[in-house]
Amino acid sequence: MSRLFRLNGHLLSSLALVSILVFAMANSAIVVHAAPPTVATLPAQNVTSTSALLRGVVNPNGLATIWDFSNPPTTVIYCPSPPGYLGPFVVMVAVSCTATGLTPSTTYHYILRAQNSDGNSFGTAVSFTTLPATPSTDWAVLSVGVVPAAPRVGDSVSFRMIMSALSTTGAYPQTVDVQCQVDALPCGAGTATYPGPTGSPFTITTVTPWTATLGVHTLTWSVSTANDPNPGNNLISATFNVQPPEAQFDFGISVSPTERTVTLGGSTTYAVTVNLVAGSTQNVALSLSGEPQGVSGSFSPSLGNPQFSSTLTVTTTSSASPASYSMTITGSGGGRTHTTTITLVVSQAPDFRMDVNPPLQTLSQGQTASYSVNVVGLNGFNSQVSLAVSGLPSGANGVFSTPTGTPNFQSALTVTLATDIQIGSFTLTIAGTGGGLSRTANVVLVVTAAPQTQTHTGTEPGGGQLPTSGIMDFIQQNTLLTIGVLAVIIVLLLAVALRRRGPPEPPPPPPPTRACPKCAQPLMYVPQYDRWYCNNCKEYR
Q1: Is the same domain home to 23 and 113?
Q2: Which CATH number belongs to the domain containing residue 338 in this structure?
Q3: Do residues 284 and 237 both lie within one domain?
């Protein structure tokens, strides 16, 4: 007999007697016939890996009765401890207790035992098997959120939770129950399979969308706390706000500046800004129209989400015509189209010209000539221009009074000729260089022989003067024969000079005036070449 029934017999008898007397006094009309308890063992319930609820029924048959559950042959007591107690009832009474500390995946047999003063009773043996071992896992909800993050009335919203297993005694994958609530109403629930490893974030999103309603709402996500050693981190709540419906998308376009001036072959830029006016931002594409021939434009970038900035670069070629043009910038996106107008003024490229006068000069050897050089800026040209001359004959020197200047300015080119300079006609090229440009003008310089100048001492027949410097030297260095020869030469020279005397021939009449067939400007006749010269075209005709 087990230790449960190691009780003093007199104590049991006394208890039973007291119970019978009390029962008899309370029910004087009932006649009780004492007997051992009647028992029956029932199947176990709430079986887990380490526990089970053991069940049965006991009829004390009118005597105080004690009971417990053990395994046959009554060597191990499962529960309760101390034994349960029943009064002197005469009806069947349900009894149960939870056996703990069981081994997972193990089969157990148990019976219900009962004893009163009239004897012991044993129920039929019943068996059950504990569930497999459940790992102990510290589940944690890391964060919760809504998609979209800023919902508006009528939007379809899904809810997201990021969870993780912070520690575990088992292997992966593992399952855990999860639940979502919005304003304490279910928005999703089920079993999630966590793949691991420990500490890895795992995202769960609701399948059924929630239709957003106006106002502030509370979102709650939770995971099961079963076999969780730290259930305090298994739930997170957060609030989110649903805004009124959003206005329809719209945008505007602004340009700075609205007017630009560019020279032929040049380029310029406009700053374009696309602003968000209403609604959620959407892609807007930019384009340019109305470009004249020789003008093209490009945007960088040409597509973007307002607010964004773009640079419009407009480029011209030599085929463009100088004028003022109106062009249109168009933005299209989100079912909307807006335009704005810009102005492009195309002007001639900056330039300069050089006017040189006179176009032709005739000088004798040893003389000095001066040419007037006028440098005129065109189309806003404002760069410095440097002057230079080329084509001067050997023995000629050319100097500019103002060698460098910013148009408009004047300079004088002074050309000095040596006394022994070569006789002839020379084309001088006057070049101006500046602002990346080079322009030239040509003039003609005609060099003639210098007139002979002689000095005489003494008097010759006819009143002429005899040269003294060279003759005296010769006389001093030569004999009388030499003096005679020189005298003969002098006589011959005098004879020639006398022969040339007489009235000078009249100059030939000037030719009639002519016009340049190319530019219609008057031409200048150059006697030395018997040709006509156009000062405007800088060419002989």
Answers
A1: yes
A2: 2.60.40.10
A3: no
Phi, psi dihedrals of residue 406, rounded to the nearest 5°: -105, 125
Cβ neighbours for 277, distance < 8 A, ≥ 6 positions apart: 250, 251, 252
193 & 296 share domain: no
Triad 92, 95, 97: Cα angle to 5°: 175
Domain count within the chain: 5
Which of 146, 102, 149 is CA-nearest to residue 127?
Answer: 102
* Pair (306, 415) in one structural domain: no
Block residue for tokens 């011209």? 316
Q: How far apart are the first and last CA of the chain?
A: 154
In this prediction, residue 528 has a pLDDT band, given cuts at 50, 70 and 90, of low
CA atoms within 13 A on the CB side of 183: 9
Same domain, 261 and 317: yes
Token readout for 72 is 């046959």
- Provide the strand spans (E) within 279-350: 284-289, 295-300, 303-304, 308-316, 323-333, 336-347
Single out the residue of 131, 106, 103, 125 nearest to residue 43, CA to CA.
125
What is the spatial distance between Cα 75 and Cα 495, in angstroms, rounded to a whole number?
A: 180
User: What's the token pair of residue 465?
Assistant: 């003067």
SS3 474: helix
**Other Cβ atoms within 10 Å of 220 Cβ, number:** 19
The pTM of this model reads 0.36
Task: Find, among 94, 99, 93, 63, the residue nearest to 81 by Cα.
Answer: 99
- Which residue range(s) make up the domain with 221? 137-242
Q: What is the pLDDT of residues 309-356, one digit of tens each?
A: 999 999 999 888 889 999 999 999 988 999 999 999 998 888 899 999
| Residue 48, both tokens | 């887990």
Is residue 96 within 8 A of residue 28, CB to CB? The reply is no
Whether the CB-CB separation of 289 and 327 falls below 8 Å is answered with yes
Contact in structure between 445 and 426 (CB atoms under 8 Å): yes
